[in-house]
Amino acid sequence: MRKIGLTSRILVLVAAVAMVSAYFYPIWQIKLWAPQYPEGIGMQIWIDRLTGDLASINKMNFYIGMAEIDEAMFPEFDYLKYIIGFIMAVGIVAGIAGRRMLMNIFLGLLVLLGIGALVDMYLWGYDYGHNLDPTAAIKIPGQSYQPPLIGYEQLLNFLAYSGPDTAGWILSGSALLVFVAILIEYGVFRRLFKRKKS
Amino acid sequence: MKWILIVFSFAITVIIIACGGDTQTDERTTDAKDMGVEQREPDPRGIGEVTNVDLTDPLDEDMIRRGRQISDVKCASCHHYDTEERLVGPGYLNVTNRRSPEWIMNMITNVDVMLDKDPVAQKMLEECLVRMPDQNISLEEARELLEFMRYNDEKHAGERDGGVL
Amino acid sequence: MTKSLMFIGSAIFFMIALYSCRPPAPGAAATGDAASRVYVPPGEHDEFYNIVSGGFNGQISVVGLPSGRTFKIIPVFSVNPENGYGFSEETKPMLNTTHGFIPWDDLHHIAISTTDGVHDARWAFANANNTPRVARLDLTTFNTVEILEIPNSAGNHSSPFITENTEYVVAGTRFSVPFGEEEEDVDVPIETYKENFRGAITFISVDPDDGEMDIAFQIDAPPFNYDLARGGKGISGDWFFFSCYNTEMAHTLLEVNASQHDKDYIMAINWRKAEQYVREGRAETVRARYAHNKMDKATHMASSEIKEDVLMLDPTEFEDIIYFIPCPKSPHGVDVSHDGKYIVGSGKLAALIPVFSFEKMIEAIENEDFEGDINGLPILNYESVLHGEVERPGLGPLHTEFDGRGNAFTTMFVSSEVVMWDIETLEIIDRAPTYYSVGHLMIPGGCTAEPHGKYLVAYNKITKDRFLPTGPELCHSAQLFDISNGRLELLLDFPTIGEPHYAEAFPAELIKDKQVRFYDINENQHPYVTRGPGQARVERETEDRVRVYMTSIRSHFRPDNIEGIFVGDTVYFHVTNLEQEWDLPHGFAIKGANNAEILIMPGETLTLKWIPDRVGIWPFYCTDFCSALHQEMSGYVRVSPRGADVPLTYSTGGR
Q: Pick from B129, B130, B136: which is nearest to C581 by CB?
């Protein structure tokens, strides 16, 4: 088992500890703008709950037959806090133990978490945007309302944005820090530095 | 040297034209000032359409009757008949002895101009403080009112038409 | 490894970019010289009168265009303490109904009278949505002069639209209800909607000389919701078009259950034929009580009469009165182009705007090109009547007006914009955002045969951040566009009174020189007029009823000292304004009056009822700053205990 250097250990520890923000800040956000809502209305996804202008969003979506968003739609809220807690623990152990393998596993888990979350979001968004109530007041042939996975999209009169919120950005930052630590440990920077010197 | 002169004279022309515009504005402001007091020899006939009234003798009973009707409805709120004493405006008594018939009829039919420009009317406004309302009385009706005032003076003052020019 | 660095760098860049790449919001700015285009210099007049419904305030606003300045609020279905409308004894009967006195209603739509489809602006008509009524306003006095209750109706929404020569004003019910002469006709389970509910369409005749209204006949139409209506013009002048939603005939949770049909209908009524059948005696006289209230010009007093029956026409007995045009989807507005050739249905839940051709409709009727029927009333084939569809116009189309140059303008509620399109080619020419959620729109003369296609006003439901905020309740707003250059140019935002729905506008020249400036005191036939100060007096009419015959002129009332009034007396102050000059009203108010003030125009008589409830001296005064001595224009009433030894006396200035 290879040990890792002090810098990398600190990076890994900082990354792991920073993940605690997921319990205190929203991870993901969805925002909508329309002519009537120049200031926008939004929804924040936390580790275990939703906040924001859910009532307004649901009221508007009702006309086009979209399901009502509520926390019961997201079974992830039941176990996400444990998953993130587990990954965090792995990171802390990796930082303290200073094992390279553990550090690699930590990054792997973080990346898996990210990919898993995006896939999960996509599947939910697809269902949410396509599974419309056939008795809806406004029906537009061929029109679906799947929110963008990440970035902006125009849905009828609404401009929709989907992207990470505070904790989401911090989690990405954690992954980045671990990635940098791995680059250090595999000597990438050293080699780069050498080449420049010669 | 010549072209400097040309430019110079051109510039002056421009200034004159520009000033011309200003003069127009000035005229308008002067107009507005005219709305106020104007110092001029007062015309005892007042200001308005009435320049000459042919008075009849004896008095015309029909005109008196109609004049009284108009007066009762439109004038009596502010004018006593049998005294010079002020109610809101001055009483009718002796009005035909103080003022010319033309002045009286102009005051009735051209109130706003009279109150703005006639010095006698203006002096009374200063005393009474209430502008006499334009009661929308026609020239014919004003003549009937005048006849009633002549009758009123004859009855209460014993004489009438002392103000005839 | 440079690659990795570049990857990290680009990842960070991507994240930043994600946040900053938001597409720009639609521009909210007016064009540069907009201010000068709406500026009416001091002392000059606006080009158009804009008569604007007030919605839930039950009033009408009179606005000037292009300045957007409000000149007057006219009380119509609502009491107005400002001038005593609905409080003075003279005006109380105007608000009488078969339900008694109703001090409020919801006024949605305006119709300005026309001759040959062109504004003559003699009268304005207005609807009461809640307790169905139609009012007529005289545009020489800007007063409400007549109100007619509509029986058998509930939710008088598709009203008061008119035929091109103002022969009729229509009143279609938005809520179908059961009606009949007996209690068991109307006391029915709600779930028997389809069998028992009926949709009455009322045609109100208008006297061509004095404008007096009366119910000419009603048509017993299917129990749909009749939302809006328009009379035909020119070639379509004999027809009237009504938009129908809830053709599902739902009676609960309409927002879902009345939105199921892909197509509802536009109901076309041949009113000329209907009128003819009524004249031939083929309508049935049915008992239906309704109030008819009129303001008498000579006495300045309103009277209310309860009428007992109407003529009811059963359209299923005739083959050629009613035809249905399928129209997607829950149509709200139905509007007829200035030449009468096209009928535009605005399906508020539809993703397109269908435009129907009147000529094709006649052809389809002649060819019996039907796709079904409703109780025997033919449904025309959609494709056969269709001129074409405007594709992807926006979301939530509501209302359409015309500029007379071949363009139509439709409001889009959901996407909050006005869309300009070509009637012939159905192509979209321009669109402009509205702030926010536009309902009706209006072009001066835009619903007539002669539009003045210079301005367009959009009436918005939501203003939100557009004006200085005023707590939770915000003003509604209007937005003025210049459309004379073949596009929509925003010139002005201005707040409105109440909740404007429909409005109309016409050139000021039509009526501005016909305005009544004051009432001739010599023609005042009021039964309690005081014609001159000599007649001013106080009379005890009965044990506890007193009439004060009072005059007002700058700057006193006569009489202004009154004694000998007892607690509990009903005192009527009949105040006659003796002024004969324009813009010289006097007000009258007395302490403790539990109604309002009265504002008496020159030459007019108005009456305030007052019942003193305790002993004391009660001042009254003029409420309209009339002159330099306005503050002096006041008086006193002495109120004594009932039966006290105080004789009835009155005086002014000791006389």
A: B136
CATH 2.40.110.10 at C49-514, yes or no? no
Kindly list the residues from chain B whose CB atom is less than 8 angstroms away from the CB atom of residue C553. Answer: 77-78, 88, 133
Q: Is C41 on the interface with B (CB under 8 A)?
A: no
One-letter amino acid for residue C511 of the chain: I
Indicate the DSSP class of residue C235: G
Where are the domains positioned within chain C? Answer: 49-514, 524-651
Q: Cα(B95)–Cα(B81) distance, rounded to whole angstroms? A: 10
Please tell me the CATH code under which domain C524-651 is placed.
2.60.40.420
**Long-range contacts for C272-281 (Cβ within 8 Å, ≥24 apart)?**
C272/C238, C273/C238, C273/C318, C273/C320, C273/C321, C274/C203, C274/C217, C274/C219, C274/C313, C274/C315, C274/C318, C274/C321, C275/C203, C275/C216, C275/C217, C277/C313, C277/C318, C277/C321, C278/C216, C278/C217, C278/C311, C278/C313
Q: Confirm or reject contact between C259 and chain A (CB < 8 A).
A: yes
In eight-state DSSP terms, residue C83 is: T
HEC profile of C147-197: EEECCCCCCCCECCCECCCCCEEEEECCCCECCCCCHHHHCCCHHHHHHHC
Structure tokens given for C618: 């009660």
Alpha-carbon distances, residue C306 vs C151, C202, C284, C289, C294 (angstroms)? 11, 17, 20, 7, 12
For B61-156, CATH gives: 1.10.760.10
Cβ(C336)–Cβ(C342) under 8 Å? yes
**pLDDT 10s per residue in chain A (198 long)?**
678 889 999 999 999 999 999 999 999 999 988 888 888 899 999 999 999 998 888 888 888 888 888 888 888 999 999 999 999 999 999 999 989 999 999 999 999 999 999 999 899 989 888 888 888 878 777 788 888 899 998 888 888 999 999 999 999 999 999 999 999 988 888 888 776 655
- Coil, strand or helix: which one is C14? helix
| Residue C34 token pair | 């907009």
Across the interface, whether the CB atoms of B133 and C554 are under 8 A apart is answered yes
Question: Are residues C462 and A38, on separate chains, in Cβ contact within 8 Å?
Answer: no
Does the distance separating the beta carbons of A176 and C11 come in below 8 Å?
yes
Q: How far apart are CA B29 and CA A38, in angstroms?
A: 49
